[in-house]
Amino acid sequence: MRKFNLSLLLFLFILTSQCQVQQPIEVKPEKPEISQQHLLRINGLISQSIKNKDIPGAVVIIGRKSQVLFSKIYGNSQLVPESSPMQYNMMFDLASLTKPIATATSVMILVERGKLHLREKVKDYIPDFKTFSNEQGDKGDDSRIWHLLTHTSGLPPYIKDENITPHFGSFCSLKNMVAYIASLDKINLPGEEFHYSCLGFICLSYIIKQITGQNVAEFSRENIFLPLGMNHTLFNPSQELKEMCVPTEVTEDLYLKGVVHDPLARTLGGISGNAGLFSTATDLAKFAQMLLNKGQYNRVRILSPLGVERMTEIYRYAYFSGRGLGWDLDSVYSSSGGDLFGAHSFGHTGYTGTSLWIDPETHIYIILLTNRVHPDDQGSVVSLRSKIANIAASSLLKIQ
User: Fold this and answer.
1) For residue 136, how many other CB atoms are within 10 A of its CB?
2) 121-167 pLDDT, tens per residue?
3) Which of 60, 101, 358 is nearest to 219 (CA)?
4) Average pLDDT of the chain?
5) 349 FRET partner, CA 20 to 30 A, in 22, 97, 242, 377?
6) Which three-class secondary structure string do you get for the chain?
């Protein structure tokens, strides 16, 4: 009887095994191996930067897809009027990260909704936008929307500080600011040279308002940040949220905590297309994952896959610039991507000491938030950004 049972069990096992083999099997790719020991080298780098007084402190998040590989806070959030330790959920003045995250993403949403196309003339929205004229007075072609996004419109980089107060006083409306920018002489024909320009993104914020009736703060919060659950990403933090903000520059006349550092954005009341956005590292991680997921995060779609691809590749009509539509890939400012990520990696930096870099090939994103301008605008993170990117890239031992 026992022998029969063993035979029967053996027969059933073989039969079951054959049935299982014939069933479709879902083969999941093996997770890449990450050298956590290698990532720990970041600790020494940032500690040295703090010791050198390049930065008072930092928040770092390195992730891959939905997995956080490395997350840590360092040093102090402020040094004056008294020192205070850095905290994980603190909000940073993102400075020029505003350009791709709020302004360019808003523009691409309008493109996808059929409200705007990139080859429209800037004059269609800003009629007095001056064209380039050579020494003989011959006028060039009109600038297009894509020229503003790629910094190839011919606009100068900025308005000199000494011209801000005489022209605008302590506050200026966006309409009046854009009217002044439109009147400026262009320094080259559109599409001919790359000159990184805050003024072009101020114009883009005006165009967003012309189309939607909302300023860039309202439109981006409603269509990007709140849908993604980025609840601490916004312009002009409330008094309550200012307590969570990392201060930037401190002088006899200024104590900037929860108030934008950029002078033009401050003149515009804190809401501008070039600067003014505040956020946390955890919120930015959601945004990075959205881009790595081709426009979607947590079942919420912000952009189409093609929209993300066009934004984050070098724009075909301005290949010499090394820029995408709001994003940096291979310009003179792209050192924050380090030396090891491939040609399709992209990101941006902020003057205050912030940066975001994303590599679609390895699915890695790097968030480095510092307030290197605190307290006296003397710190530097240029080298630190590159070195952290190199450590992050080389910690990945299997690319799949």
Assistant:
1) 5
2) 999 999 999 999 887 777 889 999 999 999 999 999 999 877 787 88
3) 101
4) 91
5) 242
6) CHHHHHHHHHHHHHHHHHHHHHCCCCCCCCCCCECHHHHCHHHHHHHHHHHCCCCCEEEEEEEECCEEEEEEEEEEEECCCCCEECCCCCEEECHHHHHHHHHHHHHHHHHHCCCCCCCCEHHHCCCCCCCCECCCCCECCCCEHHHHHHCCCCCCCCCCHHHHHHHHCCCCCHHHHHHHHHHCCCCCCCCCCCCCCHHHHHHHHHHHHHHHCCCHHHHHHHHHHCCCCCCCCEECCCHHHHCCECCCCECCCCECCCCCCCHHHHHCCCCCCCCCEEECHHHHHHHHHHHHCCCEECCEECCCHHHHHHHCCCCHHHHHHCECCCCECCCCCHHHHCCCCCCCCEEEEECCCEEEEEECCCCEEEEEEECCCCCCCCCCCHHHHHHHHHHHHHCECCCC
Domain range list for the chain: 36-394
Fold of 36-394: Beta-lactamase (3.40.710)
236's tokens: 């002009």
The string over 228-251, giving b where at least 16 C-beta atoms fall within 10 Å of a residue's C-beta and e elsewhere, is bebebbbbbbeeeeeebbbbbbbe
**In the structure, what pLDDT confidence band is assigned to residue 32 with cuts at 50, 70 and 90?**
low
Q: What integer is the mean pLDDT of 205-217?
A: 98
* Whole-angstrom distance, CA of residue 18 vs CA of residue 286: 44
Buried/exposed code over 326-335 (b: 16+ C-beta within 10 A; e: otherwise): bbbbbbebbb
